[in-house]
Write a structure and sequence with these properties.
The complex is a heterodimer of chains A (164) and B (721). Chain A has 164 residues and is of the alpha+beta class. Chain A has 5 helices and 5 strands. In chain A, 38% of the residues lie in helices and 15% in strands. Chain B starts with 29 loop residues before the first helix and ends in a 10-residue tail after the last strand. Classes of the chains: A alpha+beta (164), B alpha+beta (721).
Chain lengths: 164, 721
C-alpha cells in the first residue's frame, strides 16, 4: 500500500492502495466514481474508457501507480454543471443507447477522437471506435451521434470565433 | 393459414434454465396499498384468467381480505398529483420504461416525464414471471393503458360529482379535468386530496384507438437517458451499502467437479471471511483486490469426469435423443397429411442437415448482486430478468419464506435472455450471511463466459419434396436440442412432420434472444432457397407461391421493394439473399447483400434491409433501435460466434478470444416499418433477429454457389476450393 495522488475531473484525491491496482478499481471502489464500467478486464471492450491527458485509455488495464500527475477525466467530469457536453447531448438526441452500459466508454472515446480529429470521416470514426463494444448493437446510431457532435462543436467554435 | 396466437406459449420447452424454479405468487391485502403508497387513487389491473395462467404461473388461492389474485400492475396517483406505476417487468435496455410511460401518458393525459415507473421490486410490485418472450408490449403495455384509462374515468367522475354535472362534457387534459362548456378546470391532485380510493380495472373500458394516439405512436427518447450519458445511473454492479465487503467465488477447474480437499488458511490469514459449504467456496474481503488474492491463495483439489468437446458435439446431439412423441403435449411434435407418400411422389426431393453452435450472451454488464441481511430478512439488488424467480431461488437456497426476501432490480446492463437465474444473488447472500455484513459479488468476464448458460446448440434435419411448378408438397423437420420456438412452417405445405427432440446437453443451456427461432428459421429459409434453386424459380416468387399469410406477404414485398430485389450484380463476389418469418407475434423479412473476396475468403455483409410489422407501433424510433440492434447482434451468431469447449472447460471464454460484432462489422442497415394501427401491438426485441442468418447464407450462395449450413457460417472466412 502507498499513498497515491490523483487529479480526476479537476479535483485532487489521495488514495491508499497498491500501485498495481487498476485505475478502474480505484475509481469505482475507492472514489465511488461508478460511471466507468467493468466489461472485460483486458482492454477489449472499452466500457472503462477514461481520458488521461486527453487521450482515451482503458482504465481496467491502467495501473493506478502509472498515472502520476496526469489529469484524468471520467464521464462524471464531462458535463459542465447542468450543461451536457455536445457528445453527451448527441448520444441522447440520436438515441445512441439501449441498456447504456457501454455509453460512458463510448462517449469518452468519442470525445478523445474529436479532440484529435474535429472532422472525422465515417471510416475514421469506425476505425477509432472499433475497440468499444456495444452488445445492444447501437453502433450505427453512435456513428451518427459522433457526426452530430462534431458539427455542434464546429458551431460552438464558429460562434466563439465570430465573437472575437 | 390461420394463426392461433393463444398457443404462443411463454414457457417454450427450451427455456431450460427455468425448469427448476417454482413460480411464486404475489399476495397483498387491500388495506396494505395505502400503507406504503399513501393516500390517493389506486387502480389495480387484473388479468383475465387465461392470461394470468401464462404470466403468473397458474391460479392462486384467495383469502378473506385479499384482492383478486391475478393482479399484474397498479397505478397510484398521490395527493400531490404524482403518478406512480408499479410493474414486475424490468428494464434491460429494451426501453420499456419509456414505452410503458408513453402508454400511461396517452390514456391518463399527463406528460411522460411526470410518470414514475417502479419496476421489478418484489416488495413493491405485483408478481411477474419475468421479462422475456417479447411479452411486455402485447400484455403489460395494454394492461397499463387500461389502468390509466380507468384512472382517467375515475378522475372525470370525481370532477363531475364536484361540479354536479354529467361526465360527458368533461375532458381530461394535461393533468387536469376540464369542463368543455365552461372555463373551469381542476387538477388531478385537488380531486384526490384526502381520499383513499381503489378501483378494479373494469372488464371493458374503451381505449383510445391507435389511429388517435398522440403520445404513444410517437418516437420518445430514453426517459431517463440523461442519467445514462452522465454516468449517474447506478447499475446492479454499481450498488453499494455501508460496511460492504467484496465477494469472490473459487471456481472449479471443470464443470460438475467435486471438491476433494481444500486448504483455506492462507485466505483467512489475509483477513478474508471464507465460506466452504459443499462445493461452494467463496471469500468476502474489504476490497475486490484482496478478495481476488484470497481466492487465489486457496489450495483446492477437484475431481471431474471426462466430458465431450465441441468437435464431437453434433454427432453427440443426434445420437441419443429422447423420443419426440410429444408426451407432454406441449407442441414438440406436429403431423399433417401423409409425408412419406408425398415425399415419394415429389418431382424433386431434398435432404439436408443444418447445425448451430453454442453461443454466449455476453451482456456487457456481467452478473452482479449485492446482498444484505437484517436478522433473517434478506435484501438483494441484482441484474435479472426474473426478480421473482430469483426470490424463489433464494427462498430455496436459504430455507426462508418469501416474505423474508426482497429482490430489487436496478435497470441493468443488458441480458438478451441470459439473466433468468440468480447465481450471483445466491453467492452474495451466502457470503453476506457468513460475514454478517453486506457483500457484493460482480462476476468477471471469464466467469460470465463459463458459469452462466449458453444458447443451445442444435442439429436440424430437413427433408422435403417439391413439384415442378414450385409447390412444396412434403416437409419433414427434426430439431435436436436447439428448441421448438419457430419450428412450425408458415408455408402452406399439405404434408408435414415436425419434431423437436430433447437431448441431455453437455453444456448448461437456456434462453437466448429469439430462442430457437433463429436456428429453425435458418434451416427453413436456407432450405427454401435450395428448393427454389432446384425448380429454377426466383427465391421471392417461390416463397410467395407457397405463402398465403398476408402479413408475411406484406413484409416480404416491402423489403424486396426497398432492397431492389431482382436487380443484377454490379461486381464479382456480390450476392443477394433473403430470409423471413414470424415469431412472438411479429413479422419480419430481411434482405442482405454480401461481398465475398474469393482470394482471402473474407465475407463482408454490405447492406441489410429489414421490413418489420408488429401491429400498431408504440415508439417508432425505439422500434427501429430494436431492429437495428437485433441485426447487429445477429451478425455474431450468423458469422463467427461459437463457444469452444473440452473436458468441462470453456476454451475461448474471453473477449480477446470470442469475437462479438464491432463497429467495423456493421453493414448499412435500412429498416421499413409497417404500422398496422388496426392490430394489437406486439413486442419487437426478438423477432427481427430471425431473418438475418438465412438472408446472409442465401446471399453467400448467390455470390459463390457455396451453401453454408452451419451457424456460425464463416468463423474463419469462406473456404473456396
Amino acid at each position: 500500500m502507498s499513498a497515491i495522488h490523483l487529479a480526476i475531473n479537476s479535483k485532487s484525491y489521495t488514495v491508499d492502495v497498491d500501485p498495481q491496482t487498476s485505475l478502474l478499481t480505484v475509481l469505482r471502489e475507492h472514489l465511488d466514481l461508478t460511471g466507468s464500467k467493468y466489461g472485460c478486464g483486458e482492454g477489449q471492450c472499452g466500457a472503462c474508457t477514461v481520458l488521461i491527458d486527453g487521450k482515451a485509455q482503458r482504465s481496467c488495464v491502467t495501473r493506478v501507480g502509472s498515472v502520476g500527475a496526469r489529469s484524468v477525466t471520467t464521464i462524471e467530469g464531462l458535463a459542465k454543471r447542468d450543461e451536457l457536453h455536445p457528445v453527451q447531448q448527441a448520444f441522447l438526441e440520436m438515441g445512441a443507447l439501449q441498456c447504456g452500459y457501454c455509453t460512458s466508454g463510448m462517449i469518452m472515446s468519442a470525445v478523445a477522437l474529436l479532440q484529435r480529429n474535429p472532422s472525422p470521416k465515417q471510416e475514421e470514426i469506425i476505425d477509432f471506435m472499433d475497440g468499444n463494444v456495444c452488445r445492444c448493437g447501437t453502433y450505427p446510431r453512435i456513428v451518427t451521434a459522433i457526426q452530430k457532435a462534431a458539427s455542434s462543436l464546429h458551431q460552438v467554435a464558429a460562434a466563439k470565433g465570430g465573437g472575437q | 393459414m390461420t394463426r392461433d396466437v393463444s398457443i404462443s406459449p411463454v414457457l417454450e420447452p427450451e427455456r431450460y434454465e427455468l425448469r427448476a424454479a417454482a413460480p411464486y405468487r404475489f399476495d397483498l391485502g387491500r388495506r396494505d396499498f395505502f400503507k406504503f403508497l399513501g393516500a390517493g387513487l389506486v387502480v389495480v389491473s387484473v388479468l383475465k384468467p387465461a392470461l394470468a395462467a401464462q404470466e403468473s404461473g397458474g391460479g392462486r388461492q384467495r383469502r378473506g381480505d385479499s384482492l383478486p389474485q391475478e393482479i399484474d400492475a397498479w397505478l397510484h396517483i398521490g395527493e400531490n398529483g404524482s403518478v406512480t406505476v408499479y410493474t414486475g417487468k424490468v428494464e434491460v435496455g429494451q426501453n420499456i420504461r419509456t414505452s410503458l410511460s408513453q402508454a400511461v401518458a396517452e390514456e391518463l393525459h399527463v406528460p411522460v416525464h411526470k410518470i414514475e415507473l417502479v419496476m421489478g421490486d418484489t416488495q413493491l410490485t405485483p408478481f411477474d414471471m419475468g421479462t422475456f418472450g417479447s411479452r411486455t408490449t402485447p400484455t403489460m403495455n395494454l394492461q397499463l393503458r387500461k389502468v390509466a384509462s380507468a384512472a382517467r374515468d375515475v378522475l372525470v367522475g370525481l370532477a363531475a360529482a364536484q361540479w354536479k354535472t354529467t361526465p360527458q362534457h368533461l375532458v381530461a387534459s394535461d393533468g387536469k379535468v376540464k369542463d368543455s362548456q365552461s372555463a373551469r378546470s381542476v387538477q388531478y391532485a385537488a380531486l384526490i386530496k384526502g381520499r383513499q380510493l381503489t378501483q378494479m380495472l373494469p372488464a371493458e373500458d374503451p381505449l383510445i384507438p391507435a389511429a388517435d394516439w398522440k403520445v404513444a405512436g410517437q418516437s420518445a427518447s430514453k426517459i431517463d437517458g440523461r442519467d445514462f450519458v452522465t454516468g449517474r445511473h447506478r447499475y446492479p454492479s454499481d450498488q453499494t451499502q455501508p460496511e460492504m465487503l467484496y465477494g469472490k467465488i473459487l471456481r472449479p477447474p471443470a464443470f460438475d467437479a467435486n471438491l476433494v480437499s481444500i486448504d483455506t488458511k492462507p485466505a483467512e490469514q489475509m483477513g478474508a471471511t471464507v465460506v466452504r459449504d459443499g462445493n461452494f467456496v467463496g471469500v468476502a474481503a474489504k476490497s475486490s483486490e484482496l478478495a481476488a488474492a484470497a481466492v487465489k491463495s486457496i489450495r483446492a483439489e477437484w475431481k471431474s469426469q471426462p466430458q465431450i468437446s465441441n468437435k464431437e458435439l453434433f454427432d453427440y446431439l443426434r445420437k441419443d435423443p429422447e423420443q419426440g412423441n410429444d408426451p407432454t403435449g406441449d407442441g414438440d411434435r406436429f403431423d399433417l397429411g401423409k409425408v412419406d407418400e408425398a415425399f415419394a411422389s415429389a418431382d424433386h426431393r431434398l435432404q439436408q442437415t443444418y447445425t448451430v453452435s453454442y453461443i454466449a450472451h455476453v451482456p456487457l454488464e456481467p452478473r452482479a448482486a449485492l446482498a444484505k441481511w437484517d436478522g433473517d430478512f434478506l435484501t438483494v439488488w441484482t441484474g435479472t430478468q426474473r426478480p421473482f424467480g430469483v426470490r424463489g431461488q433464494l427462498t430455496e437456497a436459504f430455507h426462508i419464506s418469501e416474505d423474508h426476501v426482497r429482490v430489487m432490480m436496478p435497470d441493468t446492463g443488458s441480458a438478451y435472455g441470459g439473466k433468468h437465474t440468480g447465481e450471483a444473488a445466491i453467492e452474495a447472500a451466502r457470503l453476506a450471511r457468513a460475514a454478517k455484513r453486506p457483500v457484493k459479488v460482480v462476476w468477471t468476464r471469464d466467469e460470465e463466459f463459463s458459469w452462466a448458460y449458453f444458447r443451445p446448440a442444435g442439429v436440424i434435419d430437413v427433408k422435403s419434396g417439391v413439384r415442378k411448378d414450385g409447390s412444396v408438397t412434403a416437409w419433414e423437420f427434426h430439431n435436436y436440442n436447439s428448441g421448438s420456438a419457430g419450428i412450425r412452417t408458415y408455408y402452406e405445405i399439405p404434408n408435414q412432420r415436425i419434431v423437436f427432440h430433447e437431448v441431455q446437453s453437455p453444456l448448461r443451456q437456456g434462453s437466448y434472444r429469439a430462442l430457437a427461432a433463429t436456428a429453425n428459421h435458418f434451416a427453413r429459409e436456407s432450405h427454401m432457397d435450395d428448393l427454389a434453386h432446384a425448380v429454377g424459380m426466383d427465391a421471392l416468387e417461390f416463397r410467395l407461391k407457397n405463402l398465403t399469410d398476408e402479413r408475411l406477404w406484406a413484409v416480404f414485398e416491402a423489403a424486396a421493394k426497398r432492397f431492389g430485389w431482382g436487380k443484377s450484380r454490379t461486381a464479382p463476389g456480390q450476392g443477394f439473399g433473403m430470409g423471413g418469418g414470424y415469431e412472438k407475434l411479429g413479422n419480419i423479412a430481411t434482405f442482405a447483400e454480401v461481398d465475398v473476396d474469393r482470394k482471402s475468403g473474407n465475407v463482408k455483409v454490405v447492406r441489410v434491409v429489414s421490413a418489420f410489422e408488429c401491429g400498431a407501433i408504440v415508439n417508432p424510433d425505439g422500434l427501429r433501435n430494436q431492429i437495428e440492434g437485433s441485426n447487429v447482434q445477429g451478425l455474431g451468431g450468423a458469422l463467427f460466434e461459437a463457444i469452444e469447449f473440452e473436458n468441462g472447460k470453456i476454451l475461448n471464454g474471453r473477449l480477446s478470444q470470442y469475437r462479438v460484432p464491432r463497429f467495423s462489422d456493421v453493414p448499412i442497415l435500412e429498416t421499413v416499418l409497417l404500422d398496422r394501427k388496426d392490430l394489437p401491438s406486439a413486442g419487437a426485441g426478438e423477432c427481427p433477429l430471425i431473418g438475418l442468418a438465412p438472408a446472409i447464407g442465401n446471399a453467400i450462395f448467390d455470390a459463390t454457389g457455396v451453401r453454408l449450413r452451419s451457424l456460425p457460417m464463416v468463423p474463419n472466412g469462406l473456404k473456396l476450393s
